[in-house]
Write a structure and sequence with these properties.
about 50% helix; alpha+beta
């Protein structure tokens, strides 16, 4: 019985040592992964911040904007602030900007992310609702630039935005009160249909 207990004790002691070593190894891996994550985040953040600044200037025709990490010591869990200065104005909080200005700032951020890490498609729901005609044109130019890597699906009521599309899908009420889907390629539209 003593030998059995001794064997059991040695087995459990070895198991404990193995588990303690595994815990140390896992902690080391976690620390290494955290460092890799921080470095990747910093690289990506820097690239997105640069694109954000450029796209902001393009959308607003000047000004400046940047992303700011709230707590540099804890970058994986902290927030990110947007600092924006519109052309001819002083620095303002986002809450003080008009609806259109906030929309363009958000678009600049989304598009900067798409430039750094493109997705197959991007759905924008009435993103142009607060924009005037000149801003819609700038938005359209940016979408065209990015459309080689990302397909945009834009839900809109704005005719100026619709004119920028290559394909239009519309939903209308049919005679039997059922919804009907209409599709139209703009390149196939003749001037007679537009008028």
């Amino acid at each position: 019985e003593y030998n059995e207990d001794k064997e059991r004790y040695e087995f459990l002691t070895n198991q404990i040592a193995d588990l303690e070593q595994a815990e140390k190894d896992l902690r080391k891996v976690v620390i290494e992964l955290e460092e890799i994550i921080k470095e990747k985040f910093k690289e990506t953040f820097k690239a997105v911040n640069e694109e954000f600044s450029e796209i902001f200037k393009q959308l607003f025709g000047g000004g400046s904007a940047r992303l700011i990490i709230e707590d540099e010591e804890n970058i994986t869990e902290t927030g990110i602030e947007i600092e924006a200065t519109l052309p001819g104005k002083r620095k303002q909080e986002l809450a003080l900007l008009s609806g259109g200005e906030r929309s363009l700032t958000a678009i600049a951020l989304i598009f900067s992310l798409l430039k750094i890490s493109p997705t197959p498609f991007c759905v924008l729901d009435e993103v142009d609702a607060m924009l005037d005609e000149s801003n819609v044109v700038r938005l359209g130019q940016l979408m065209k630039e990015l459309s080689d890597r990302t397909q945009f699906i834009v839900i809109t009521h704005n005719r100026n935005t619709v004119q920028l599309a290559s394909v239009i899908y519309g939903v209308t009420m049919g005679r039997d009160s059922a919804s009907q889907l209409i599709s139209l390629k703009l390149e196939e539209v003749t001037d007679d249909l537009v008028e």
